[in-house]
Amino acid sequence: MSKAEATASGTGTIWSRLATTIENGVDRIASSSAMSLALIAIVALLCFLPGLTTLPPVDRDEPRFAQATHQMVETGNYLDIRLQEETRYKKPIGIYWLQSIAVWATGTAPDAPIGVYRLPSLLGAILAACLTWWLAIAFGRPRVALLAGLLMASTILIGIEARLAKTDAVLLATILAAHGALARAWLSKSVERNWRLATIFWSALGLSILIKGPLGLAAIACPLVLLSVIGGSFRWLKQLAPLPGLIWMLVIVAPWFVAIGIASKGAFFEEAVGRDLIGKVVSVQESHGAPPGAYFLLLFFTFWPVAAYLSTGVSWIMDRFKQPAILYAVVSVVPFWLGVEAMPTKLPHYVLPLYPLLALATALALDGGGIRTTGWFARFAASGAALLPFALAIAAVVIAILLGETPSIAGVLVLLIATAVGLVSARLFAMSPIASAMVAILAAMITYLGIFGMVLPGLQHVRISESLARAGHAALDCADPRFVSAGYAEPSLVLLAGTDTVLTDGVGAATFLSEGQCRAAFVERRQLPSFQERAEDLGMMVDAAGTVRGYAINGGRIVEFQVFVPRSATP
Fold this sequence. Notes:
By secondary structure, the chain is α/β, with parallel strands linked by helices. It is about 65% helix and about 5% strand. The N and C termini lie far apart (about 85 Å).
């Protein structure tokens, strides 16, 4: 053997040993339910934690939820939902109660930092990863269950939702709890009532309704109906005690819905169902429109890094349609996916309830040797774990330079390390897809540390609301300052500057300043002429107390604000 051949053989042995070691480790952990759940929870925490407390409130939905919770804790009214003086009846009460509990538990009072309001989402996302294991283990494949839980924990979409103080991560956990009970009832040969499964199933559905209305019911209805039609009978559903279960679900949801219906004189149902739910089904809302097929095209990004393994295993999955686990995944995913693709309004998280089922199908393909490892598409898919962190590293430098900031050197270096780990995953892809997937999960963990933990929190120009609130407090040396914003109406400013922050135009800002002391105005450049004209008409003298510049993500432009205070208020 030549020296070159010996070197090549030795290199191959190293990769083979690495793949074997990883696969053996997976088998050893999968043999213990406790170890499997512990590893999934740890991986989920490491994926979701970076940036949880350091990322600013993300306009617009997140600060709306957090501010409404803030006002609940502030006023002690845990029935109604309000954003400043306006009612907020787009979603039910569940997430606001959970966020309020997070505020109580941390002892932070209403002015809690945004990380506190995100705690229910973090815990919901971790629970969702563990419940993906619980769903998968119902089919009797411990290694598949471990793989499915780990894959779900690493996907970028659930990682984003884990960092946002809104409904979707918690909703996912409730849907998965219902899926786990439903799958066990379907797999069972008995038709006797199983009160344990029934309690889990109907409680989960009740909680899902309190979190986000009927979406959880829609997700569960797909497998429930289709499995019954395919099997030619609904008798298996007797295990879930339908009549007592429905009554129990109503016991969970009815008290608040009845109370809010009476308190709002029906306005909640008109807004939540008539405008928000039905409105999104029949028309594009808030400019969130996209053609059918958009979710499919986004899959390689939103389901990263798992999409590479799903896409190369899809033919194997479809060839085994009659296997119970695959059948359950397919009937859960396909009708719901087609439904959301047909909706005019599209947001990435609408397909999140389907990703655990896709993770389950992917884990089955990995475990069954169904990943195609040859051909140009397989080579492209294998590189996915390295391509995204590399692209993010480039974007981190370019965006920082365009904003006039210094790039996060540490963040870029971490992303390049993730790229190197992704290349290891690509190298293992043809040899052992399972080992490749485990290394891809490690690459994902490092990527999230770099992008969410270092790069994004370091971009100061996008933290406009924080900068304005800080400048306003610095300009006033008095207790209980009040603020007005002209030309900038993001809810994050209300959350950070105070519930009574006024969002108006230049004329309204000048009028507000004239009506009291201990006040400051944030006036966007385009509102300056009307502000100054109104101030002159009022005979009011104002002083410029600072300038704030930044990049408005909603609108995609550089904005500049002057901070004004009445002359007598200057410290």
